[in-house]
Amino acid sequence: MKNAKYFLVVNLIAGQGHCKEIFPMVQSELDRHNVDYDLHYTNEPEEATDVARVGIEAGFTHIVAMGGDGTINEVANGLIGSNAVLGVIPAGTGNDFIRMTNIPSDPRKAVDLLVSGNERTIDLGRIADDRYFVNGLGIGIDAKVAQDVLKMEHMRGAPAYLYAAIREVFRFSAFSVSLCGDGWNEEKTCISLGFANGQFCGGGFKLAPRAKIDDGKIDISAIGDFPKLERLVRLPQARKGEHLKLSQVSYHQDVAVTVSSSEKLVGHIDGEPYQLPKDSFTVTVVPNALRVLVP
Predict the structure, then answer these.
(1) At what angle do helices 141-150 and 158-169 cross, to 10 degrees?
(2) Fewer CB under 10 Å: which end of the chain, C or N?
(3) Whole-angstrom Cα distance, residue 102 to residue 121?
(4) Domains assigned to the chain
(5) Contact assessment for residue 1 and residue 31, using Cβ atoms and an 8 Å cutoff
(6) Would you tell me the crossing angle of helices 69-79 and 47-57 to the nearest 10 degrees?
(7) Computed over its alpha carbons, how large is the radius of gyration of the chain?
(8) CA atoms within 13 A on the CB side of 83
(9) 37-41 and 267-269 beta bridge pairing
(10) What is the pLDDT along the chain (295 residues), one digit of tens a residue?
């Protein structure tokens, strides 16, 4: 792309070290394409957000997240309010964001996309005027699964999420919440409560099958409780996005929803643990918030 300057934000430990394994090849591909770039290796949680802002201030036009969904989230949070474009070289565990945007999982093809891709403007979600998310905010069993996956040393990708999900099916305790949207209210006991910008979370679980990343809405998927053995039966349905027909599942689309609960809730944002506000908070959509390079 003419006059493009690329700044790579690289999380070498993403994907249990997968990012570090493929990075030399990625550098070779960047050099082969004569890409003008600089880079920064992240070392601390949320460091990528500040680094992305520094890159923008330095005049880089494209900020490229190399890592997993957590790295993409951090970089996206640094791009809010700027004209910079997000590029992605996937190297994580779940890689749900690329499922929604059709960004290639092959890092060579992802590098090709940096120089030949098209810009697409997408929505973001936001929680309590605090943090933005690209995929979704999850509360309950999927958040616990995300925590479990981060602790794994010898398994990654979809198998890691599936293994963790099966394990949590038998030990996770349901929680009670109140939801309030535009013209609707709901009291529910859930094992999973998701606020989705895109369809996928948890390494390919299609928890919000009606979600679109540019429709100006947040999709709210509330899955009620089941007996533990039935949970195991329902898990494949949730993975395929076939759970909406179940009577225990409620589904809404809205621009904002307020969540209240007296219980201590376990949450994640884009696959990374997130400390939820106490008692009550609001999740909103932020339309046309981010420019992304896509095929």
Answers:
(1) 130
(2) C
(3) 14
(4) 6-116 (3.40.50.10330), 131-288 (2.60.200.40)
(5) no
(6) 40
(7) 19
(8) 5
(9) unpaired
(10) 678 999 999 999 898 889 999 999 999 999 999 999 999 999 998 999 999 999 999 999 999 999 999 999 999 999 999 999 999 999 988 889 999 999 999 999 999 999 999 999 999 999 998 899 999 999 999 889 888 887 886 776 677 878 888 889 899 999 999 999 999 999 999 999 999 999 998 778 899 999 999 999 999 999 999 999 999 888 889 889 999 999 999 999 999 999 999 999 999 999 889 999 989 999 999 999 999 999 9
* Amino acid (1-letter code) at residue 288: N
Tokens of residue 178, six digits: 């109140």
In the numeric block, the tokens 């945007």 are attached to: 101
Which residue is listed with tokens 């934000």?
Answer: 9
Sign of CA dihedral 196, 201, 204, 206: negative
